[in-house]
Structure formats: structure tokens, C-alpha cells
């Protein structure tokens, strides 16, 4: 029985010894080892062997890129306006030993250094430049933080200004200015559209007038060519004159027609065609009172 108990105790001590001797470090992690209170080495990812009860591993340190968002900070610009700035920091631990022994809390240290640098940079800029110079501010912050945090085993990859909040009064003024600018652009666009529409309308009217004139000219040329090509009989022309006489009488208040001498000559041609005649008037015009056709005496 005693031997069994001793065997169990030995086995338990062996298990504990193995557990204290073997250390498995995950990928992208690191762990500092202290021997009797002093830094000995840094454990790499994978299987590591240490001396139990003498070597003491410290907490794992993440070697991946990390993102930290800081609380909004109040910063005064050159024109004495208070703005609230949110910052986002992207950093990576490059030296686990320095990160563990050179600074107590590197995240808190970076945050305070960011606030101090922001106040120095924004204090030299007015509000307008602060709102339009984010890339410039980010570059300055990154340079200062990377230089200061290098001795802590930290590499600052990127610093971003997530938000810049001006005072409410300034924000209201900016909104009014932006609204006025949008209305101005809309008015310019509307005026340009109306001007273009008028130009297009005038161009269309001009083209339509040109087409109408060309059509009328073509129609006149066609009729003129047809008349001369067919050599119409004077009786046909006189008949066409007679067709137009009722149109002359459609006007309101017409009590008599004034017939030009050309029409009289045409009527004489028609009369001769029917073996009749129309008496001539010395002044070269024939008047038909009250729209009545004069009587034609027999030959």
C-alpha cells in the first residue's frame, strides 16, 4: 500500500514537472522568460523547454497588428476654437522584451503621446486647415509616435483621425454655407439648362423655317416646271381662275368683287371658249355688283 502511494506521488510529480518544463507558445505570440527574477530569453512560437521552478514565463504578448480607438479629446485650434478629435491607432509589437520592460503600459503611453502631439499640431492650425489637412496631421502623428514608441518595441503603422467635431455654432454656420453653396450650384444649373433649352428651341424653329421655305420653293419649282412642261391651254388657266373666284367672296362684308385685268382676260378666254363674251371696262377692271354674274348677250 505504501509503495502504491509512493508510486502515485512520483507519477504526479513527474506530470507536474513535465507541465512546468514544457511551454507551448501559439503562433504570432511571444513570452518572456525570467530566471530567478531576471530576463533570460523570449520564447518563440511552438514547443519550448524551460527549467521548472527556476525559469518563470511571463504573460503572452500579441505580435499581430492591433487597433486601438481612443476617446475623443478636446483640442484648441490656432483661432481659439475647441474641437473634439477621435483617433484610431494601428500598431504592432516588434520587440517583446522592450514592450515588457521599457514601458509599464505601452497602450496608455501611446494614447497620452497621441493627445500631446495632437494638441501641438492642431494648436498651430486654424479650424479650416484642421478640417482639410487630415492627411498632413496623420503623417505628423505617425512620425512622432513611431519615433517615440520605437524604444518601447512598438511600431506605429498608421494613425487616423476618425472624426473632427467643431463647436455647434461653427457647425451650424458651416451647414448654412454648404446649403447656400448647393442652392447657388442648383440655380446655375437651372439657368444653364434654360439657356440651352432656348438655344435648342431657336435652332429647331430656324431649321423648321428653313425646311418649310425649301419645301415651298421646291413645290413652286415643281408646279412651274409642270406647267411649262405640259404647255397648258389658256382655257385651263381661265378655268383655274374661275375656281378661285368663290374664295375671294368668302370674306365678311363683301358686296362686290374687284377683278384684276388678268382675271378679266382669263374670263374672256373662257367666254370665247363657250362662244360668249364679257364686256370690257375702260379702266381695265370689271365690277360685278352684289356678286351677280353679268348677262352675256347672244352673238
From TrEMBL:
Q: Which domain of life is it from?
A: Bacteria
State the protein's name: Regulator of protease activity HflC (Stomatin/prohibitin superfamily)
GO terms, biological process: proteolysis
InterPro entries the UniProt entry points to: Band7/mec-2_domain, Band_7, Band_7/SPFH_dom_sf, Stomatin_HflK_fam
Q: Which Pfam families match?
A: Band_7
What keywords tag this UniProt record?
Hydrolase, Protease
Q: Which Gene Ontology terms of cellular component type are present?
A: plasma membrane; side of membrane
What the record says about family reads: Belongs to the band 7/mec-2 family.
Q: Which GO terms describe its molecular function?
A: peptidase activity
Q: Which organism is it from?
A: Kribbella antiqua
Amino acid at each position: 500500500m505504501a509503495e502504491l502511494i509512493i508510486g502515485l506521488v512520483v507519477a504526479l510529480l513527474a506530470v507536474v514537472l513535465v507541465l512546468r518544463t514544457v511551454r507551448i507558445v501559439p503562433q504570432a505570440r511571444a513570452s518572456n522568460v525570467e530566471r530567478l527574477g531576471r530576463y533570460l530569453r523570449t520564447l518563440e512560437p511552438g514547443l519550448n523547454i524551460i527549467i521548472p521552478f527556476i525559469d518563470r514565463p511571463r504573460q503572452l504578448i500579441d505580435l499581430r497588428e492591433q487597433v486601438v480607438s481612443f476617446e475623443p479629446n478636446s483640442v484648441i485650434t490656432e483661432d481659439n476654437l475647441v474641437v473634439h478629435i477621435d483617433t484610431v491607432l494601428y500598431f504592432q509589437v516588434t520587440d517583446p522584451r522592450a514592450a515588457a520592460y521599457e514601458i509599464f503600459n505601452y497602450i496608455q503611453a501611446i494614447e497620452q503621446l497621441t493627445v500631446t502631439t495632437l494638441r501641438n499640431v492642431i494648436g498651430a492650425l486654424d479650424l479650416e486647415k484642421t478640417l482639410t489637412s487630415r492627411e498632413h496631421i496623420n503623417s505628423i502623428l505617425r512620425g512622432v509616435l513611431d519615433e517615440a514608441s520605437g524604444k518601447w518595441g512598438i511600431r506605429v503603422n498608421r494613425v487616423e483621425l476618425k472624426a473632427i467635431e467643431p463647436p455647434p455654432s461653427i457647425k451650424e454656420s458651416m451647414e448654412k454655407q454648404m446649403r447656400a453653396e448647393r442652392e447657388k450650384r442648383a440655380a446655375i444649373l437651372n439657368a444653364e439648362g434654360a439657356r440651352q433649352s432656348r438655344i435648342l428651341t431657336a435652332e429647331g424653329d430656324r431649321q423648321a423655317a428653313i425646311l418649310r421655305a425649301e419645301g415651298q420653293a421646291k413645290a413652286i419649282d415643281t408646279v412651274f416646271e409642270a406647267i411649262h412642261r405640259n404647255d397648258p391651254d389658256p382655257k385651263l388657266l381661265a378655268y383655274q381662275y374661275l375656281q378661285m373666284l368663290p374664295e375671294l367672296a368668302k370674306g365678311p362684308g363683301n358686296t362686290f368683287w374687284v377683278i384684276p385685268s388678268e382675271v378679266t382676260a382669263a374670263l374672256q378666254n373662257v367666254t370665247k371658249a363657250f362662244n360668249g363674251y364679257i364686256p370690257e371696262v375702260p379702266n381695265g377692271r370689271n365690277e360685278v355688283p352684289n356678286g351677280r354674274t353679268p348677262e352675256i348677250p347672244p352673238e
